[in-house]
């Protein structure tokens, strides 16, 4: 990582339209494996597994291609098929990336080589073949992801409608409150006029006496 005035600095990469976000990554996936899996679509400039503050993988990754053609090819192939990175038939979900993070990801050297690691890394990245056990469960994973996406969209719509309704109720209540204050002001003014009129009549009577 570069230094400036003896201070460590991070460089933020700009989105150039050839970057994709990858979800459904298992904990045994590293930067190197991610790059290996997506290099079949074209030259990969950068591939990282997004980690949290403690360096633990979040299940998401970023793949930055050298050109838009490769990125589009990867997006189409992964949307149509089921790309598997490990032994478990859990396909990755690939989507266009809106912005790039400036982290280093999870390099292979930092991942502990546990028995689970060796089990999951027993097979190289591949597309699940139709009619196989892997393809069946990959399809179920993708269907589950689509259902989650639809439910999130429905929740967002419900929240939006609820906010719009609350805003309308607030505006109506504010209007009613203002009318009430105006009525109270008018009533108070009338009472003041009546009081002054009464006092004037009383003074006239006193003078006559």
Q: What's this, in brief?
A:
This protein has 209 residues and is an alpha+beta fold. It is built from four helices and eight strands; from the N terminus they run E-E-E-H-E-E-H-E-E-H-E-H.
How are the SSEs placed, and which strands pair?
Layout: E1 3-4, E2 7-8, E3 19-23, H1 31-38, E4 44-51, E5 57-65, H2 68-80, E6 83-84, E7 93-96, H3 115-120, E8 126-127, H4 133-208
Antiparallel strand pairs: 1-2, 3-5, 3-7, 4-5, 6-8
Subcellular location: Nucleus speckle
Pfam families: NOPS (PF08075), RRM_1 (PF00076)
Protein name: Paraspeckle component 1
Largest sheet: 4 strands, antiparallel
Strand content: 15-25%
Uncertain residue segments = 1-5, 7-15
Mean pLDDT across all residues, rounded? Answer: 82
Principal-axes geometry comes out as: elongated
Q: What string gives the helices and strands in order? A: EEEHEEHEEHEH
Q: Nearest-angstrom radius of gyration? A: 33 Å
Number of E strands:
8
Number of structural domains: 2
Count up the helices: 4
Quickly give the structural class. alpha+beta
The span between the termini is: 103 Å
Helical coverage, percent range? 40-55%
Major sheet strand order: 4-5-3-7
Subcellular location: Nucleus speckle
Pfam families: NOPS (PF08075), RRM_1 (PF00076)
InterPro entries: NOPS, Nucleotide-bd_a/b_plait_sf, RBD_domain_sf, RRM_dom
GO molecular function: RNA binding
Structure, described:
The longest helix has 76 residues, at 133-208. The chain starts with a strand and ends with a helix. Mean pLDDT is 82; it is low at 1-5 and 7-15. It has four helices and eight strands; from the N terminus they run βββαββαββαβα. With 209 residues, the chain is of the alpha+beta class. The chain is 49% helix and 16% strand. A four-stranded antiparallel beta sheet has the order 4-5-3-7, covered by helices on one side. The chain has a two-stranded antiparallel ribbon with strand order 1-2. The protein has a two-stranded antiparallel ribbon with strand order 6-8. It has helices spanning 31-38, 68-80, 115-120, 133-208, and strands at residues 3-4, 7-8, 19-23, 44-51, 57-65, 83-84, 93-96, 126-127. It is elongated, with a radius of gyration of 33 Å. It has two domains: 19-96, RRM (RNA recognition motif) domain (Alpha-Beta Plaits, 2-Layer Sandwich), CATH 3.30.70.330; 114-199. A hairpin with a 2-residue loop joins strand 1 (3-4) and strand 2.
